């Protein structure tokens, strides 16, 4: 039997809005609660930073710094039926566009599908907890109390919902290493969450901790203004070939092993005994899942190793509280927002009754079997349990199995892998220096991303008219 439910979605980023759209398509009554003054989630850039707490979460919600450009091509960075085409009225038409262009896309998506009236802005969720119906009951009859407060107002409003979808809390709480002397080091320390522009590091000696995506970006940006940039990594052997080349190319860019300790005189001592006197340390060490508003009597927790526990069934449903509580966006190493759109569609169909989840016992057995295979076969630690590591076949199977989502076209898969290769081999230039294969070019042309230039030989073809595209009814 198909049913309509009253559903609260926490957050108004791209994954949250995808949830709202899918829930409405299934006939559910949706309320989206967003603490910021506009939709966009993490992509809502704010030049303000940390409010005096550069290692914590006292500042703004967004972790976007000024120079951020997408790591994934815009041709695969969009909702399935709302491509991320360049706007006809200007903007950044490049494949790897500025963060502001993606924010505009999110707002366009919200407007195009009439989601604005579902969103309550400046509304901070302070409590999500279970509320049994008058006659008692659990499982599918479980309901949820959601308490929220308006910005600048101490008054808390309470509302009861049939279901809650949490699509926020992944990139807000900085994860920090434990380093001897860290608490006594009096020079500047900040997490990348509080980094915005390089200007204040002019002619300074800066240590960047971590060399994943943000670490690479920030280090490569800082070396143009800082006197020296020293990158500290867990394993120098694990540094990508492209980043190693960048270090060799620039006299003021250096690679080091992990930090052994920070000294009160400003020295940063590395594990191999080398040291530098630094003006600042920037921790590009990622984020912890953070749901301070969620109260489930221990049924959902964040483990010490930063995994959502007990682990979620297919990265989406906590078995003991399914289907009325779900998470969209916890999975990492996926194509965004495509995978989150799949999750949203699955959640919406389960809540309406079109799809049926296995029993709690079966979901738990599935999770245990997944963990056993991951540990025994690949040696995956628990903290990486929500990492899918860009397994495109798994993502295809997930969509087909759970919500009838079409498989990703082969040309898009090739485009994704070529982008990863570019990031690995040429982190400073891959966004602007690339050459597409014939398969990718044919795919781009078939969907209106390119207009072929007559008479151009295949080997010489670049995007002579980049991202020229067919008219879009939403533009």
UniProtKB/TrEMBL annotation:
Protein name: Flavin-containing monooxygenase
Required cofactor names: FAD
Enzyme class, first EC level, given as a word: oxidoreductase
Record region (Disordered): 456-475
Record's keyword terms, sorted: FAD, Flavoprotein, Monooxygenase, NADP, Oxidoreductase
Pfam family, one: FMO-like
Protein's job: Catalyzes the conversion of methylthioalkyl glucosinolates of any chain length into methylsulfinylalkyl glucosinolates.
Enzyme Commission identifier(s): 1.-.-.-
UniProt similarity note: Belongs to the FMO family.
UniProt feature, compositional bias: Basic and acidic residues: 458-468
